[in-house]
Amino acid sequence: MATAFFLLPALLFAALAAAAKSLTLDLERGCQRSCGGVNVPYPFGIGTGCFRLGFEIKCTDNMPVLGNTSDNIEVLSLSLAPRPEAKVMLPVAYQCYDSTDYTISTYNGSVDFNSAGVYRISNTRNELFVLGCNTLIYTSSGPNGRYAYTYYAGCVAYANDTHSAQDGACAGVGCCHVDIPSGITDNRMRFTSGGYWSHANQTFCPCDYAFIVEKGNYTFRTANLRMDGRRTSMPQVLDWAIRGSSSGSSLSCAEAATMPDDHTCVSKHSECVDSTNGPGYFCNCTQGYEGNPYLDNGCTNINECERQWEFPCNGVCHDTEGSYDCKCHPGYESRGDPKEIPCNPKFPLPARIALGVSIGVFFLVVVLLLAFIMHQKRKLAVHFEMNGGNILKKVIGLTIFTQKDLSKITKNYSEILGNGFFGKVYKGTLPDESKTVVAVKSFIKVDEERIEEFTEEVMIQLKMNHPNVLKLMGCCLQLDVPMLVYEFAANGSLRDIVHMNKRQKLSAELRLDIAIGSAKGLSYMHSQEIRHGDVKPDNILLSEKLIPKISDFGLSKLLKLKEIIAKKVVGCEGYMDPVFRNTGVLTPKSDVYSFGVVLLELISRKQTVYGQSGSLIIEFRHIYHTEKSGRSMFDDEIVTEEDILILEEIGCRIKVNLIGLYLELKLSV
């Protein structure tokens, strides 16, 4: 009996060693290490034998999800260093009421993603948001003590009516947010209702919502007070750690060091770090090394000499194991460590002679430089005059930037946003108090015959003053090709969010707001006798708050006021009305035709080249003719019972406008 008692620990350690060896063999044999573009490093893993207990990842329809849970919790990213984190999508908690304050639907947000105790919701990387109009919601965590839980975190949101809350403002009116404590292990929320917190006769705000979201990843919008909580989730950052051992208890680094067969920091150059969010520990590679500390030989040497932005050296760099050496070049010396203090040349006699020669050369260079500067000034003056500067400098309200101003605004043209109608578009920041962000675009090269055309175009754009038309902030005329400075649209073009970023959800309300704003911008242009001539998703930009801005008045560059026939037909084939394409006759109704195509793209989220016919317009007309409805082409994301009537109305008007306008335009020629 005594022999068996002493053999038990030995057998236990042998079993652990065998399990570790088996895992190492599985990793060497090859485990799937990515899913849906997300890297899955050990201790995470996909498939039997490829992960540590509690760290399973499942690859479902090419989407990584957390294992050990009945809910499909999507994983956005997994990281080992510098902090052990997992970014996931967790659902929103909600509770909805009828006009008598009776609860008609509720979900507290609880998700069993932590059955193995691996994860804690990061208190430093997330914050708690509460949305509602007479609302107190809180979350809690920790063992009981004086009260049922150790921590409580929540806040109050109140709004008197639908006009009280403001987009972007979350200070208690319709929206509030607070930091959360450490140790939270679940997404569960607790709602306060009834009594003082009555929701009776509150139809303008029928639901309460609460969610924990990664800091900087959510901005309040009043439309969210009526969002569909069942279909909404938010990105959240989880802290993870090695929290379990073979004995079933959570270990610190000091305790784990006494159990080498169960310690996970196995790489030769790894170190153990105690978790700051809950019990347990995690592993890092030691200074001078990087990689995966949870694998044998997973931490490898960093070549610091190839990363001098991180590891500076003012002389000759030589990589060493776990560090690097830095010495001055021959003939140079430093008054300290060359890693921190620059190397300066020593000054023997040949060096002094060389210095004298260098000074002479320097003065020669200065003379040549002054001559070059004078030449450049004359060149700038010529460009200014050639680009209509003598005319535009008299225009009231137009800011004319110098070449030096523009270089400073764009940080020497370092950040390219894309390509505009005539050239590259750069991001910049104006030197005003609010540090206004702008977009700087190249214009067409101006010669003597085009001075009048260019100056008229600038004045046309300058007088465009409407929230849905991209505002011209100024111009620079000292360059070979003039540059125009516009307000910045932070969310890119309508094409970007409709076609390029398919994962971004676009509610019916948001699409309708974009359509209405774009229509207002076009209507304003037409009221100013300006025809756009190139209406398409690329030329509808979106601000930070997704407000549409009409940009690139394509053919206004080619038409003078009151003219209707363009000298040159320019535009995008899929959006151009047939009459303008064939005759050059451009009227406001031509823009309306193009805008109808844009609306069709917006509600279908399909591109103009589509279907068997190769044309979205023809395909839509065919389906409408055969099915008496365009519903089968509508985007599934917005086809709901509450939205289908307005979508059908929009589809019907698109059909009537595209066909009717074509016939009307043709008959008017």
TrEMBL record:
InterPro entries: EGF, EGF-like_Ca-bd_dom, EGF-type_Asp/Asn_hydroxyl_site, EGF_Ca-bd_CS, Kinase-like_dom_sf, NOTCH1_EGF-like, Prot_kinase_dom, Protein_kinase_ATP_BS
Binding, ATP: 441
Subcellular location(s) per record: Membrane
Single GO MF annotation: ATP binding
Transmembrane segments: 353-373
Topological relation to the membrane, as annotated: Single-pass type I membrane protein
Origin: domain of life: Eukaryota
Record flagged with keyword Repeat: no
Domain named Protein kinase: residues: 411-669
Keyword Nucleotide-binding: yes
SMART domains given in the database record: EGF (SM00181), EGF_CA (SM00179), S_TKc (SM00220)
GO term, biological process aspect, one: cell surface receptor signaling pathway
Entry keywords, A to Z: ATP-binding, Disulfide bond, EGF-like domain, Glycoprotein, Kinase, Membrane, Nucleotide-binding, Serine/threonine-protein kinase, Signal, Transferase, Transmembrane, Transmembrane helix
Gene3D superfamilies assigned: Laminin, Phosphorylase Kinase, domain 1, Transferase(Phosphotransferase) domain 1
Extent of the signal sequence: 1-19
Listed GO CC annotations: plasma membrane
Name of the protein described by the UniProt record: Protein kinase domain-containing protein
Source species of the chain: Hordeum vulgare subsp. vulgare (Domesticated barley)
UniProt gene name: LOC123441344
